[in-house]
Amino acid sequence: MKKFAKLPYFVFLLVVVYSCNQTNTPKEEETILKGKASLFVDETLSPIIEDQIAVFESKYKAKITLIAKSESEVLNSLFNEKGAIAILSRNLTKEELDVFKAKKINPKITPFATDAVAFISNKNSKDSIVSLKEVIAFMQGKPTPSIKGLVFDNLNSSTVRYMKSLAGIESIPKSGVFSFKTNDEVIKYVSENTDMIGVVGVNWLSQPQPAMVQYVDKVNALKVTGLSGNESYLPSQNNIAEKKYPLARDLYIINCQGYSGLGMGFASFVSGDIGQRIILKSGLLPIRIPGRKFIIDRKSKNDEK
Q: Domain 116-249 in CATH: superfamily?
């Protein structure tokens, strides 16, 4: 009878062990092409990453949840181990790599495309060209008659960080520079106001959401004159490729999973042939130009008769 009395305890122990094993199954089931993962994305880059995820999920038994945040929030998510995979518009700094090194994490960094920061104006605006020197002077708080105001997505975005770095400033001026929350809000505001210059990721112009098409149609991307020379260039794919447009920036996948999971599989996909074709079609510059196949028909007209 004592042996039977102990039976419920063994059953309970087995249930506990099974439950603990069940909590680990998602990681055990995840492979480079199967499972679930969260992807923290710099929100200025979300349109092109949405396309990549849609195609990736259509080909493999994978579910990737895109979480769009400002650049600083994406980095905090990585540091706090809330998200092991991220998309950024810059590489990690030495100081940031040291943080991961202290945690015994070796991030796998994959460059996959070149994006651009675009200046936009209302279509009714008379100006079609903006000088980068004047934009920088305006960011530094200097009087610039040709620029009445700059509009950014939000103060923690990669776009603001990029322009602050160019201007060599720690904080933006208290007057003349405004911020919203998203690139869509910037585009909408500029489409309704003729005196402001918006600063957005070019991908939001080349791949607008259906609801945003009406607003994108009411703005123009401005030609930008760089810090040297007098030529001005649009943020086109060709100008980015030829390094003529002065506000180009490389994009990176930061994978901190530390095992062969979806981070590795997604990075390989985006930097591979299909992913690079998606980049090319989007108007951004892929890190590798996909090859083109030509079919040569050797039949002569006499053969066809």
A: Periplasmic binding protein-like II (3.40.190.10)
